[in-house]
Each structure stands twice: as C-alpha cells, then as structure tokens.
Amino acid sequence: MSAPVATTSSPAVRRSRGTVGTHLVMALFVAYFLLPFWWLLVAATKDNDGLFGSEPLWFADLHLVDNLRLLFTQDDGLYLRWMGNSALYAATSGVGATAIAALAGYAFAKLRFPGRNALFALLLGLIMVPATALVLPTYLLMAEVGLVDSVWAVILPSLLNPFGVYLLRVYAHDSVPDEMLEAARIDGAGEFRVFRSVALPAMRPALVTVLLFTMVASWNNFFLPLVMLSDQNLYPLTVGLRSWYLSATIGNGGPALFNVIVIGSLVAIVPLIAAFLLLQRYWRGGLTIGSLR
Amino acid sequence: MSARSSSLGRRHLAVTVAVVTALSLAGCGSDGGEEQDGPVTITVWAWYPAFQGVVDLFNRTHTDIKIEWTNAGTGQDQYTKLQTALKAGKGAPDVVMLEFQELPTFQLTGHLVDMSAYGANDLKGNYVDWAWKQVSNGAAVHAIPVDAGPMAMLYRQDIFEQYGLTVPTTWTEFREQAEKLKAAAPEKYMTDFGANDGGFMTGLMWQAGARPFGYDVADPQHIDVNVNSEPAKNVMSYWEDMVDAGLADTTAYGTTDFYNGLASGKYATYLAAGWGPGYLASVAKTTAGAWRAAPLPQWTAGDDAQGDWGGSSFAVTDQTEHPEEATRVAMEIFGSDKDAWKIGIDEAFLFPTATPILEWDYFLTKEYEFFGGQKVNEVFVPAYNGIEEFQWSPFNSYSFSQLTTAVGQAVEEDTSWPGALDTVQQNLVTYASNQGFQVSR
Amino acid sequence: MTRIRPLPVATDPVATGPTGPTVPGGGRRRTAVRRRFDRQAAVGWLFVAPFATLLLVFLLLPMVYAFKLSLYRSTLVQGEVFAAFDNYRQAFADPEFRSGVLRVLVFGLVQTPVMIGLALVLALLVDGVSSRFARMLRLAAFVPYAVPVVIGTLMWGFLYSQNTGPFRFTGIDFVAGDTVLASLGNLVVWQWAGYNMIVLYAALQGVPREIYESARIDGAGAVQVALRIKAPMISAALVLCTVFTIVGTLQFFTEPLILQPLNPGAITNSYTPNVYAYNQAFSYQQYNYSAAISFLLGAVVFVGSYIFLFATRKRSSLR
After folding, report:
1. pLDDT recorded at residue C28
2. φ, ψ for residue B360 (rounded to 5)?
3. Nearest-angstrom CA–CA distance, B279 and C78
4. Is C95 touching B (CB cutoff 8 A)?
5. Cβ of residue C166 closer than 8 Å to a chain B Cβ
C-alpha cells in the first residue's frame, strides 16, 4: 500500500465533496421533502374548479389574489382571528412555560430544599405519560370550574413542560457557575436577584431553545384546543382549518371550501417557515444541548 | 330521566301565540308584550351556511330578543361539544341545531326542553306529519323542524342525450341505463355510491321501506333493532351488484376526487337530497346548465316511495335561563318567515320544511340556471310530501359509524354487503344491551 | 401540557446538587448557615411551586381522575355504576381495540427502522459531504417539522387524491385499505425524518474527527467509515430517537383522524387505540371506557419505554 499520507489538514473538518451518486440521492430527497410545499404554492393560486380539474403541479388560471381576499373575508375575517389566537396561545404558553421551567430547573439544579430529589424523580417518572390520555379528564376537570371554552383552557395546560424543566435543570447544572452565585449572595443579593442576574444569562441558549420549542409545539397543538374549545372565535389555526375541512367534506354543510383551506394552509405555514429559516442557529444549537459529551 | 320542563309561573300563552302569529305573518317585529330590562340574549349554535344574514334579520326585527350565534362545529363536532356541555351542566347554548337523526340521542339525555309549554304546538299545522313526528312525541315538542333532505335523482342531461339514455323511473331501469352507459363509455359511471355517508345509505333504505329502529321516547328503555331487514338487504344487494358490475363508483363523498368526478362528467347521475342542487352548483360550477332533476327511481313501478337524507331542527336545552324566549327563537328564526327563508333558499340552499314556504311560489317555481332553468323544487316537494315516518336510534352516531364501517369494509374487502348489515345488527344489539336497553326486533 | 419531542440527553439525571461552602465549627456560624439553607429551602420551594402546581393540577389530578372514571360504567339508560375492572376486561376482549393495538405495533415495528434508517442516512450524507446540496438537504429535511401536523396531513391528503393528485399516474390508491397504513407512514416519515436527522447530525458533530482520519489512513472507504465507525459512535442518540419514535407511533392519532374522511371504510373509528379512545368519548359518550383505554395505552407506553431504556442503558449512556 502507499505510504501513510502526512496529514496536513487541520483537526477541523475535512469532508469529501461528494460523488455524483450522492448528490443525486440528496437531490431526490430534497425534492421529496419540498414537493408538498411546491404543490401547496401552486394550489393556492387556483380556485375550486382549478383544484378539482387541472394539473396539480403546475399553474392554471391564477386566482391568488381572489383566494387571499376570500380567505380574509370568509366568515367575517375568522381566519385572522384564528391567526391571532394561535399567536396568542403560542406567545403566552411559550413565555409562561419557559419562565416556569426556568425557575424550576434552576431550583432543581442549584438550590437545596427538602424533597427536591423526590420531586425531580417524580418529574422524570411522569415525562413518559402520553398527553392524549390526559386531555379528556383535563377537560372534565376544567368544566367543573367553568374554564372550558376560554383561552385559559388552552393556555394553562400548555404551561406544563416537564421536559423543559429537565432540560433547563441539566443546563443550569452545567453552565451556571456556583462561584458566581455565591459571589452574588455574599454581595447581599436576594435569591431572585441572584437568579435573574447570574443564572438566567448563563442559561440563555437553553432558554431560547425551550422557548422556541414550546412556541412551536403550542402553535402546532391540535388535540387540546379541539377538545377544550367550542367557540370558533377562540380556535387556533389548526382547529379552525380542520373545521373548514370538515365542512367541505361533510357535504350538506354548504359550499366546499377547498381553495380557502389550501390558501389558509399556505398562509399559516409561511411565518413558521420564515421563522425557522431566520432562527436556524437556535434550532441547531438547541438540539445539541444535552447531547453526548 | 324524563325531560325537565321548567315552569315560569306565568302563563302568557295567548300573548305569545298572538305575537308569534303576527311575527310570522308580517315578518316584521313587534313588542313582545313582556316587561324586560333590555333584550334577552339567546345563544344559538348552528352551522347553516349564510346563517349570519338570518341572525341579523331576526335581531333587526325583534327588539326584545337578541340572538348570539356561534358556529360550534359541523355535525359530530358540535354534537360532541353539546354532549360534554350537557353532562358538565354548563356551556350549552340556549338553542341548538340538531339534525333529525340526532334528536332521540339528545332526548335521552333529558336535557331538551319540552317546548309545548311555550306554544310550540301552535306550529304543528305548518309541518307535514312525518316531519312533525321527527320532533315531537304526542303533545310534547322537543324541536322545531327547519330543513329536510328529500331524495331525488340529479342527472346529466347532456350525457344522457349523448349516449341515448332515458330517464329511469325504476331501479331496474336505472341498472339497464347504467349498463348502456358502461358499454358506450367504460370510463364513466352511472353514479357514485357513498358508503361513507350513513345518512345517504339510510335514506335509500328508508325509501325501500326499511325501518331499522323502533324507538319511542315515552318508553325510553325499550328499543327495536331491525337493521338487516329484507328491504334493507335488498337495497344493499342491489348496490353491491352495481358496484361489482362496474356501474357505480365507490369514491367517498365529500372528497376532492368526488367533486372532480361530478365536475368532469365521470358520474352521469347524483342521487341527491333537497339541499343537493345548491351543493352541486357550488362544487361543479363548470357543469352549469347540464343537470336536470327527476324523481328517485322506484322499486315497484308506479309507486311513490321516498326517502330523506339529512334535515335539521332547532331544540332548546335545559341550561337556558329563558326557555320562553329560546322557544320563540327556535320557532321564529326560520319558521315560516319569508325573508329568512329567502336567505335560506338562495344562499344556504336549504330545503324548507314549513308548508307555507313549500307552497310559496318563490320557492316552488324557482328556476335554477344550473339546471337549465328547470323548476327543480317541483321534483323535490312531492318527494318531500311522500316521505313516511321513520325512527332513529338514541345512539345514532354509533349506529351510523357501525353502518359506514361495515359497508365500507365490505366494499374494501369485496365481501357481502347484506352480510355487512348482519354484522351491524349484531353489533348494535350487543351495544344496546350493554347500554341497558331492552332490545327486540 | 406542552408536548415537545424530547431530546437525547446523556448526563446523569439526578446529579448531586451544588455544595455549599464548608462551614468550620462554631454555633453562630452554624445557625447562620442553617438560616441560609432555610432561606434557600423556602426560595427553592417558591421557585418550584408554579411548576409543581401545574404538575399536580394538569398531570397527576387528571391521571387520577381518568383512573377513577375507568372504574365506572355509564350506560345510556342507567347512568353511572361502579364496575371495578370491567372496562379493562372489556377492552382486552374488544376486537376493535385489539386490532387497533396490533396495527400500531406493526406500524411501529415497520415504520421505526424506516424512519431512523432514513434519518441516519440523511445525517451521514449531510455530515460527510460539504457542498451546497448538503446544506440544502439539511434545511429541506427539517422544514416539514415546522409545519403543524394538521396542515401536513391536509396537504398529503390532497396529494394522495386519485383523480387530482400528482401521483395519480402510478395508479395506486393511496387510501385503499391495504395501502393506507403505508401512506400514513409516509406522512410521518416526511414530517419527522428531518428532526431525527438533525439530532443524529448534532451527535455526529460531537465525534472527534481524528477517528475518521485514522480509519481513512487504514484504508477504510467512506461508506465503511459511515457504517462501522460513525453509526456506532452515536448509538446513544440512535437509541433515544428510536424510543421516541416508537412512543410516538404507539400514540398515533392526528394523521388518521384528519385523513379519515377520505376513506372511513379503511380508517375506522378504532384505527388506533388513541383514535378509538377519542371516538369512545366524543362520538359515543362512553367516557369511562375511553378513560380505560387511554389509561391502558398510557400504561403500556409508559412501562414499555422505561423497559426499553433500561435494556439499552449501556448504549444510551443513561445510568
């Protein structure tokens, strides 16, 4: 065999440029993942007749503006309400859940209090409980206190984020220096002050991750709002679009709103995708948190 | 549990009757004759299309009642919410839209108000027998009918002409024409059979004389279950043959494939309900002018057997604090009000149940451009009048689900359709027994 | 509660907490320290209180309530009666429930290797190739995760259409009885492969490059490096992705529910245990039976995941 090649490359990555074969495979996968979005884009420009009749992957008569107008005027601008609701639920659940998880995670990691380990063990044990098993009993419980069919019915349960607590605990444990905590305490800062000025900044990457993931989960949430809400003015986009879809497929519920559903889906995901692309580094950073050392 | 009817301790029956009559005849508001501190708010759940216009009309013409309308979901979605709200004791609306098939289910909960105490029986004369029997039990009235779905056959005039088909009057003829069509145009079907729609299949079996359930709200613990009766099996057998011979398609109703089939001429006929014309016009715009309406084919030549598919009513829940006003809303929001029905007919494509509206020229002789100017309701109204009594089970969502699943699976797996009815029978008898009913055939 | 797909974590779950400063003898000192720790204890509980309350109200309480519900029977005619474990007995004998369970088990067993395998392939590709395409792939695969499951399902529902979908040239009926499960599987893969890919990719990033270098020097080809070296090094991440995929498939709910109108004969009301539980409660008002099914499913998932994690603990570095 040839003599060992002197490695002149730095310890940094030296990856191959890839063969034609691998590029072909990658191109196919890219097409697979993006095809439905292309379809959605094209379909959003069609009216119902176009949807039922024309070539699915290419444009027919353009009705994009009509569709948009229809979308925002349908049912007196109900779609915009749904969007507002989704944003409200996502923002409040996200911020709320993250704040609560940050406090709890920090406390588990850095504060000594009786019952801490037991409570944490309980948390771990409960992480695997399937959420769907809880929705119905939660509904009946909330009905008892008259909170159903309100924004609280959707927001309050979403504030519970055991995995976020776990994540933040791990992160706080690893990245909040005890010395700095002590120093702050010695300087006379109260515990909350210590938390706010020392721990929070140190935990920032993990906080952003938990915030983002919670907001996405809330934006995408379907089952909980489906069960809790009867007033369509309180629906988030997921439940709202599905209710239009049901009307369209049920037949005697009126005109089939497929073109509105299609454009509604497009408009619903555009901000998400934009946010994703812009906040890429947080996603990637977040997913490495807690990964193998 | 019997239906609780709260008594107000006042009897304004005469005044109420006078007001109702005045309102329904004049179509304009007048003082309710009761002392209030401002209009009573009545919450209504309904999913009728174009309903906002009807609500606005009511609110404009009534100074003592104000309707707050919510669309709480379509079909089962709304029923689920209603069930849980009734069970929880709060969250239910004053007035709720209930399809005929769901009425026994909700009567059984005991949470529907008997509206006869508030003058509902005064409307009895406005509705034909079978429709009034859907919503009442003797003198007790638990809902006011709104719309119905008498069945008829909508067919493509142009396709019939092109292939020399004649309009069938019996199911045998229907099959013959289907075979003729298939021979000439193998890619077309005579019709699409929606095995995913319990109301559709039940309507067809209703026409054939099948009576799957015998249930009397006055004797709530007892139910007759006879889903796999002869007439029902005949209907299933017929359609199984039609599908096996490639004469009928099995695409699920309400899917884009189905709409595509209607719009592209894949289906030469569409077995529709009274709300079908408007529905068809909205989903198959490119075929405007090509359709016509004809009565549903008969099993025996010369018969006038009819079936119904869908239809709804307004009921009042016992969570209302104003049963009298709620009853008035139920009675008057559509009732026989011509202005409200104009919206209902033109924009929501509803088929009215109130006889005054059925006989109203505007409705009866309305020319539908989509049907080449045909006065389509002249087909549907006799169909409506020819419908006979029918009873539903008090667990309709379960029954429909069993029916669509069993027939759907028979279609998928190519097994016997009448056999599917036997399965349904068995499952429903077991279910009913488990639920504490005394079951008989 | 918020349902986030958990991330693989390797560190010891219950590590020791911070140690306070050592206190050399002295009664007053000790009292001061004790007071400090008392204060810390109070603050600790204060900080944890919101979370603990939520845990109690929205997790424990409903669980208990669900269990209590499942011990009763509620008939349409007679109302609620105590039935002990009758509901559970009924579930075990219920053919619809059993076929639903079988279905998700089969689904999990088939779909998980496909998903994880694909995610691994993608991760290896994206890790091993440094080109614009690779970056594009990394992004493209992750975008479906951003889309709500409801919308993704609606989109694919249209794409599966036989008359108007782009795949109609294949002649396959995607929602027919024997193909619909595979179609649903495709939906899940499309939605989640990218997420799993990123997780595995992140794990790969943590592998020291020197290992590859020495393998290369020894003559190993790219594929061999990928399979024999990279993959085993991220086995912990693989195990965790697998667990969470299985857990997800056992609870399969949204996609079948949304696609059901396309073919209710194939996607029945008891298609998966969760769909069955949902319909029992919301279509048939059988809340008690529904609670029993949910509880049963929850228990199986719960116990199963812990057994799996325990069995693979060496691999997943969780001790």
Report:
1. 64
2. -70, 130
3. 42
4. no
5. no
CA within 13 Å, CB half, B12: 15
Show which of residues 44-73 on chain A sit within 8 Å of chain C, judged by CB atoms: 51-53, 56-57
Amino acid at site C72: Y
Q: List the structure tokens of C83.
A: 């039935």
Burial class (CB in 10 A: 0-12, 13-18, 19+), A265: buried
Q: Find, in chain A, the residue whose alpha carbon is nearest to that of C119.
A: A29
- Interface of A to B at Cβ within 8 Å reads 48-49, 51-53, 75-76, 139-140, 143-144, 146, 148-149, 230-233, 243, 246-256, 258
Per-residue pLDDT band at B9 (split at 50, 70, 90): very low
CA distance B437 to chain C (A): 7
SS3 C173: coil
How are beta strands B40-45 and B95-99 bridged, if at all?
Answer: parallel
SS (H, E, C) B195-211: CCCHHHHHHHHHHCCCC
| 8 Å CB contact between B331 and B116 | no
Q: Contact at 8 Å (CB) between B344 and B334?
A: yes
Within 10 angstroms of residue C81's Cβ, the number of other Cβ atoms is: 12
The correct CATH number of A77-288 out of 2.60.120.280, 3.40.50.2300, 1.20.120.1200, 1.10.3720.10 is 1.10.3720.10
pTM for the whole structure = 0.81
CB contact under 8 Å between A276 and C258, yes or no, is no
What is the rounded CA–CA span in Å between residue A140 and residue A163? 25
Name the amino acid, one letter, at A106: Y
| Closest-approach residue (CA) in chain A for C142 | A33
Rounded to the nearest angstrom, the minimum Cα separation between A76 and chain C is 22
Please, how many CA atoms are within 13 Å of residue B380, restricted to the half-sphere of its CB? 34
Measured between beta carbons, the chain B residues lying within 8 angstroms of A52 are 256, 259-260, 263-264, 283
CATH number for region C86-316: 1.10.3720.10
SS3 C142: helix
Residue B299 sits at the vertex; the CA angle it makes with B295 and B301, to the nearest 5 degrees, is 75
Closest in A143, A247, A252 to B84, CB measured: A143
DSSP state of C56: I
Taken in order of first residue, the domains within chain B and their CATH numbers are 13-148+310-364 (3.40.190.10), 150-308+390-440 (3.40.190.10)
Which subunits sit against C, judged by 3+ Cβ pairs under 8 A? A, B
Contact B209, B305 (CB under 8 A): yes
Shortest CB distance from B436 goes to which of C76, C158, C279?
Answer: C76
* Residue B190: both structure tokens together: 């005579």
Closest residue to A248, CB basis, from B52, B197, B254 = B254
B368-to-B277, B290, B341, B344, B348 alpha-carbon distances in Å: 9, 11, 16, 15, 14
- How sure is the predictor about B222, in pLDDT bands with cuts at 50, 70 and 90? very high
pLDDT bin (cut points 50, 70, 90) of residue A2 is very low
> Domain segments of chain C: what residues?
27-59, 86-316
Q: Is the pLDDT of residue A171 over 50?
A: yes
Which pair of tokens denotes residue C240?
């965790």
Question: In the numeric block, which tokens belong to residue A212?
Answer: 């983002």
Could you tell me the maximum CA-CA distance found in chain A, to the nearest angstrom?
A: 79
pLDDT digits (tens, 9 = 90+) for A96-141: 999 999 999 999 988 888 888 888 888 877 777 767 667 777 887 7
Contacts of A245 (CB under 8 A, 6+ apart): A261, C154, C258, C261
**Chain B residues closer than 8 Å to A243 by CB:** 73-74, 77
3-state secondary structure of B140: strand
B294 to each of B151, B270, B271, C37, how far by Cα in Å? 10, 11, 10, 87
Calculate how close chain A gets to C178, using CA atoms only, in Å.
Answer: 23
